[in-house]
Amino acid sequence: MSDEVRSSQKAQSDEGGLSNLSHEDRRFPPPEELAASANVTAATYEQAAADPDAFWAEQAKRISWETEPTEVLDWSNPPFATWFADGTLNAAYNACDRHVEAGHGDRVAFYFEGEPGDTREITYAQLTTEVKQAANALIELGVEAGDRVAIYLPMIPEAVVAMLACARIGAPHTVVFGGFSSDALSSRILDCGVEVVITADGGYRRGAPSGLKPAVDEALTKCPDVRHVLVIRRTGQDVEMTEGRDLWWHEFVGQQSEEHTAEAFPAEHPLYIMYTSGSTGKPKGILHTTGGYLVGTSYTHWATFDLKPETDVFWTAADIGWVTGHSYLVYGPLVNGTTSVMYEGTPDTPHKGRWWEIIEKYRVTILYCAPTAIRTFMKWGSEFPEQFDLSSLRILGSVGEPINPEAYVWYRHVIGGDRTPVVDTWWQTETGMHMISPMPGVTSGKPGAAMTPVPGVSVDVVNDEAQSVPNGSGGYLVITKPWPSMLRTLWGDDQRFVDTYWSRFAGLYFAGDGAKRDDDGDIWFLGRVDDVMNVSGHRMSTTEIESALVSHPKVAEAAVVGASDPTTGQAIVAFVILRSEAGDGGPDVVAELRAHVAKEIGAIAKPRQIMVVEELPKTRSGKIMRRLLRDIAEHREVGDVTTLTDSSVMSLIKDNMDKPA
Ligand code: WTA
């Protein structure tokens, strides 16, 4: 096992996350009633394993094709896969029109709950009309199939409309999380050559309007190719509108025709690009295409959550700016004709029971959120959820990072009333869909374990030599067979796609996660094995934050580590060496550097702690030993320092840390 796997394992067990791995003997079998009518049964696994291609060909029938595909997987040019390549379809038609045509136009697609308490109920018929109008608006702005459109919005229904309008005309969207800074926005716009941006004046966050349009204006000073900005009015804040470039959505989209016939595109037509942090500084543009992505997301949404579209009310409490929002708030649920809840704001506005109030109000049956949220609710105390009727819930989902056994048990007990299976879903922006998860009608859940691959998916845990590890051992998680919603490449960088995911082990997809098989062969996740941190379920690259710090004139060198944190999973801790001309940097240097990172990347990337140090621990080849810095950040005994050029560095840093701030 590599050092990295070992140290990430150590970090986890220190946190209590996996310390009881070997003696975790609590089991939660599926409720009988749920198992009796479950979408996925033990037989599903057998069918899928016997012939995965036939299994996925069968799943492809869930969606509507203009031309039915005869091909399934083409893996003749690995690692570049195609799925259902001779089929044609339209993604927005699958998410909207077909439900109206099937007589479900009156079904609610979204119950929208704004943070200030405003609400909207949007039926499939209304959604379809709005998407058609928005598609017509984009066409009038000259957007053509293949052109990229950036979306920078709060969690409001127009975000879904904008995504589907792009999909409808074959223009891949790139949604940039509203919490990212103008610099992060401009680098994404430039990387994929965007000419049209969809944004809003602002959104509501923690009880106050917070502006978005000013960030777009600033970003566009660096993006001369952007021709138009469509601006949704959400908060009513004053915004500057640039003549000839900026248009109000309610005027421009509102006046468009409600008629638009969706054109079919090839299955491999690009659907969207989603940027995510990698182990080097520059974010990667993950490319997803249409047919396979819709098959994979709609299948897993139906399977993992045992979805009954006529009766369930589904809530993914994640932002649309992340892949979870794309796959399980937009595409999966809408293709399945689901009624979903969409919530704009934070869980404690105006009070700490807001989520539970929403669940009671809409009789939510399935809740899907991140362990960091669950740990926060645990910290606030069960008195908040206990004030509300949560008896409608029947399944609880978790995503984004390993769920600690104690958080799992609290979630199941306090939120789920001990009735609800908890499905801990492991997947990535790259995989597009759930890959490893319990199935609620089949699996006896184990707190803390992601368990087994979903039907149709094949994974392994391997050692450095690509050999399968025996039960009871740890290694690297790999995916051994292509899957329909896999990323096709990195935007504009096929070589980086090959290098990042397919070069570590021949023929295997390298996920970047450490994993362990327990004595039953079930899979537990141990955290990343690369320089990617997981902060509140968000992927952050250590190098990206280091580059941001070093771009500040006072900083000579920076090293960033993810230290385990009881609420956010990992927290960002930075060690910086100041330039000599900066002197000691002054009393506010830490605040200044934190603000600088927020400006370069976004507030979510602000380090929890910044330590000004004289030296950084380096190997003789000049590599910063983050493992040692992590020991310090987590207040552990510092590990092996024998490969350091100068081992006294560590005591220097440690002394510095122990000094009162
Ligand atoms: C981590 C989010 C353990 C993992 C959908 C992965 C998890 C990265 C889990 C992807 C889970 C996600 N258990 N770890 N259930 N879910 N991860 O691309 O390290 O934002 O590689 O996708 O999050 O993060 P991403």
UniProtKB/TrEMBL annotation:
Residues 544-623 form the AMP-binding enzyme C-terminal domain. InterPro entries: Ac_CoA_lig, ACAS_N, AMP-bd_C, AMP-bd_C_sf, AMP-binding_CS, AMP-dep_synth/lig_dom, ANL_N_sf. Keywords: Acetylation, ATP-binding, Ligase, Magnesium, Metal-binding, Nucleotide-binding. Acetylated. Deacetylation by the SIR2-homolog deacetylase activates the enzyme. CoA binds at R205, R206, G207, A208, T324, S536. The modification N6-acetyllysine is found at K623. One of its GO terms (molecular function) is ligase activity. Its EC number is 6.2.1.1. It is an enzyme of class 6 (ligase). Its cofactor is Mg(2+). Mg(2+) binds at V550, H552, V555. It catalyses: acetate + ATP + CoA = acetyl-CoA + AMP + diphosphate. Residues 43-95 form the Acetyl-coenzyme A synthetase N-terminal domain. The keyword Ion transport does not apply. ATP binds at G400, E401, P402, D424, T425, W426, W427, Q428, T429, D513, R528, R539. Residues 102-483 form the AMP-dependent synthetase/ligase domain. Residues 1-35 are annotated as: Disordered. PANTHER family: ACETYL-COENZYME A SYNTHETASE, ACETYL-COENZYME A SYNTHETASE 1. Catalyzes the conversion of acetate into acetyl-CoA (AcCoA), an essential intermediate at the junction of anabolic and catabolic pathways. AcsA undergoes a two-step reaction. In the first half reaction, AcsA combines acetate with ATP to form acetyl-adenylate (AcAMP) intermediate. In the second half reaction, it can then transfer the acetyl group from AcAMP to the sulfhydryl group of CoA, forming the product AcCoA. Belongs to the ATP-dependent AMP-binding enzyme family. This is Acetyl-coenzyme A synthetase. It comes from Microlunatus aurantiacus.
